[in-house]
Amino acid sequence: MTNLFNRVTHKLNFSIVVLAALMLAATAPVSRAQTNAPAAKPAAPVAPPLSPEQKAFVEAAHNAPPDAPFPKVDLQQLNKDGSPNTNFCKVNGGFRAQHEAFLKRKAEPIGVLFIGDSITAGWNGGGRAVWTNQYAKLDAANFGISGDKTEHVLWRIANGELDGIAPKVVILMIGTNNNGDTAPHITAGVTAIVKQIHEKLPQSKLLLLGIFPRGALATDPKRAKMAAVNAELAKLNDGKKTFYLEIWKPFLAEDGSISKEIMGDALHPSTKGYQIWAEAMQPTLDALLK
Fold this sequence. Notes:
- This protein has helices at 2-27, 32-35, 52-62, 93-105, 118-121, 128-134, 150-158, 183-200, 221-233, 271-289; strands at residues 112-116, 140-144, 169-173, 205-209, 242-245.
- Strands 2-1-3-4-5 form a 5-stranded parallel sheet, with helices on both faces.
- The protein is α/β, with parallel strands linked by helices.
- The protein has a domain at 105-289: SGNH hydrolase (Rossmann fold, 3-Layer(aba) Sandwich).
């Protein structure tokens, strides 16, 4: 009887120990590794499939030829927060706003008109002091938009930017943002703009600037392409209505490099860079304004 009692007691004690261990494990704190384990990242937003019309538009935007008008458009389906971009496949809002501002600017006198991309637009930034000193007295207007390609400028012209004005001189520099196109295609785009300027502004003289050098080093392949384009653009100089001017050497060091002091990103002029541009261009501009 005593032995039976002892066996039962032993089994009971063992069961209590096991149960206590299980309870302790259940209440034990989670290990540091488990606590600090990174949460699973939420799945990236997935854009809905394009409609046939949207597919056609996106393809047309990506393949827009440099010598035909095409607006700058939004091709991102989703915003950064993953929400739908309501402006998808529509004219870019900033581009449209600047275009509309240029249309309003035409209500005031325009003696000299600058047309171009961000390098031209930069007269309102790093070049502001030089602009105020050199060009404000000429009733100058700045029709430069950051990121513009030749096809964008052609669209702006087709949509009224040159209608109803008669500047004495138009200064055009465009094409660096078409760097993904071939040199002949870039040349065709700039040439188409030159033609449109003369058709819209038959009394104006055109100062056609060669595309500025880009890339910190002389060996940058973009330099070779821009040089090839400029060689063709120089042939448009007729000494009557179109006057070509290339400004490269003033921006370059002896080894052909571009210092950060002149172009911080080897593309956009600094305040000193705009001063260099103005000084190099002034003699030609003075002659055209006579």
